[in-house]
Each structure stands twice: as structure tokens, then as C-alpha cells.
Amino acid sequence: MPPNQRRRGRPPKSSGGDARQAIAEAAAAEFSERGYDAASMRGIARRAGVDPALIHHYFDSKAALFAEAVRLPVRPDRIVRRALDAPLDRLGDAIATTVLTAWEDPRVKPVGITLLKSAIGGSAAGGLVRQFLVRELGSQIAGRLAAEGVEATEADLRASLVLAQMAGALIVRHVVVLEPLASVPLDEVIARVGPALQGHIDGRGG
């Protein structure tokens, strides 16, 4: 490759920050107008006036771009992904441990509360957050179940029930701050929530 020729999708060194910011702003507008599911990397690239390959230079997935566009300091999809390597018969405990422990982090908790409040609201932003949570969290859990031989529709249902159970515990503990759950030690909450999640994962209820 000639020394003055850049690889496709790589910005000039002097313009990297500007290009990343332009992509993030275009993504925010695209997500707002089209929703998380319908927004595409190509549409965002057109709006930003850049090659689609440049987006992939900065962001490894649509979830990463969404996190940047709405200024999330943490990636909820990555938090859940860490739990999914656990054996299937311990997956409920792994999800409960990973998610509930993450919420004790002062960097995560305010963001999590904002996401949950948005998700249960009726605004356009709330719809966008719900799409993100279902697509990036629910689909990961459903995908793991499908890989274990669970039929796709059943896997989606079980994943939805896991999300519902987990969201309920987080809302009561951190958003509504309802006692006694709000003050129960973390280990005890995990010990109670984990088996309920496992029941949904196994298809036998909480």
C-alpha cells in the first residue's frame, strides 16, 4: 500500500475525533427517528456523511454505537454477556450475581436507574430503551437457550421472563427503594433471585 494511502474506513489522523462525534450525533438522530431495531449502520453512515466501514472502525456493534450516542458509561449488553458463559444449570445464579453486583457500582447504578425509568415510561425515549434492552439483553439470553436446544419461541419467552424478574428486583431495590428488599444484603438478594431466574431458564417458572 502506498505510504500516503489510507485503508478503507480509516479516518485521517487529524479528523478522527470529529468523525467519531459526527457518527455519534447521526446515530442519536437515527435512533430517535427510527427506533433501535429499524436504525441501520448504513443509514447512520449516510446521515453522518461517512463510509459505513468508518463506523465499524470506531464501534464494534450497534449496541456500542447506541451506548456512545446516549452517553452510557457502561454497556448493559456486556454485563449480561459475562454471565452467559456459566453452565446452563447455574445460569440463573450467574445472571443474578453479575447484574445485581454491577448495580452496586456507583458508575452503573445511576445509569441503570435512568434506563429503567425510561423503559417503563411512555415516551419515545422509553420505547427506544425498551427496544435496546430486548434486542441486546433478551436476545443474548434467548440465543444461549436456543444453542442448548430450546425451541426459538420458547427461548424468547423464557428470556423475557428472566428480564421481567430481573427488572422487577432492580426496580423495587433501587428505583422504588421498597423495604425490606432495598436494605437486604446483596448476597441474600442474589440467593433469592438466582433460583427464580433459573426456574424461568429451565421453563418451570419462578
UniProtKB/TrEMBL annotation:
Q: Which SUPFAM superfamilies match?
A: Homeodomain-like, Tetracyclin repressor-like, C-terminal domain
Q: Where is the composition biased (Low complexity)?
A: 12-21
Q: Where is the HTH tetR-type domain?
A: 17-77
Source species, domain of life: Bacteria
Q: Which UniProt keywords apply?
A: DNA-binding
A molecular function (GO) term: transcription cis-regulatory region binding
Residue ranges under compositional bias (Basic residues)?
A: 1-11
Q: Where is this region: Disordered?
A: 1-21
Known InterPro entries for this protein? Answer: Homeodomain-like_sf, HTH-type_TetR-like_transc_reg, HTH_TetR, Tet_transcr_reg_TetR-rel_C_sf, TetR_C_16
Name of a matching Pfam family: TetR_N
DNA-binding span(s): 40-59
Protein name as annotated: TetR family transcriptional regulator
Query: What organism does the UniProt record list as the source?
Result: Brevibacterium casei
What are the top taxonomic ranks of the organism? Bacteria, Bacillati, Actinomycetota, Actinomycetes, Micrococcales
